[in-house]
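for the writeup, i need someone to sanity check this before i put it in the appendix. the sequnce is what the collaborator sent (i think, or maybe the updated version? ugh). structure was predicted straight from it, no edits. if anything looks off just tell me and ill rerun, i have time this weekend
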Amino acid sequence: MKNVWEPNFAVSVISREPVIAKTTHTGQNDRLEYAVSSMQGYRVNMEDAHATIGDLDASTATSFFGVYDGHGGPAVSMFCAKHLHFEVLKHPQFKDNLPIAVANAFIRMDQMMITEEGRRELSGYGRNNRKLTVKDMLMNCTCLKPKKYPGPTDVGSTACVALIRGDQIIVGNAGDCRCVLSRNGQAIILTTDHKPSVQAEKQRIENAGRSVTVTGGVSRIDNGIAVSRSIGDLRYKNNGRLPPAQQALTCSPEIRLEKVTDDTEFLVMACDGVWDVVLNQGLIEIIRGNLKAGKDLGNICEGILDMCVEPPQPSVDNMTILLVRFKHKQAPAKAPEQSGTGDDLHSKSKGKAVEVDRKSAAPKRRSF
């Protein structure tokens, strides 16, 4: 199994100009090809991470793709990019019930991060960029006993993963990253943006003893975090009477299953830094147009990130986009009928099945 995980942590400090250097990775197998690209953009540091494993498990022909959008620092997104797919693979029901394995892996992230080993790893990734207070400096003074890193209390990450096995797509999502499928040019949204304003999410938050407040038109939990599901952020998960799925801020993912059909072209996953400035259908049409023009997936992903930082309304967030194109085998074609003098002979040859790119009709204009 080839494991490629990209933490994408940058330390460049920027002011008015975006950091447009990109981290891009591509790969393929006999069933699909993929590319992922990430860019720091206007943020002062990079908190996104991703994982692309074309062959997570050879015996079941399972592929894994994940996008992790960190906040409060890069530690939790990096931790997820390194560990979440392995927890899926290790689950006892990985071969028989993949959705259960995916759901459990999300919960395992929170469990693993509060262990001594997890704390040590997280502290090694670095914390957020806030300035040290007098209290911080006193606690780190050599004359005092250093305070043990408590785990990801105020650091977290949204997470969106897609596993592909045979003709099945299993998507797990917690937060506001988004996965969209292109089927014959139509955008099929496979995830929900988990915000405190969503009625079902608001109900769970209030049942857990928290409140939903609105500041500047943005709904938040107790005037704090603006998503209703994430990994980490343990400050919002301290109701000892409730299981993980019922906490105000839950790491429990929403799972969706979808079939790969002959007209399924590709899926695209991205963090909210991309979706803030482009529409679902508009992005599908841009990608289809680029595929028709013969561009490779890596260049397509990089071009979309460049587009998202263009004025007049650029994205001011970190940006990661992951694109998976499905390979379809062409059905055997009938040979043309042969005519001759005397006896007419109609010879038929069996066409050899070959892998071909699925091309689409002429693209429409991009839409934001």
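The chain has a mean pLDDT of 85. The chain has one domain: 4-130+142-191+252-338+350-356.
thx in advance!!
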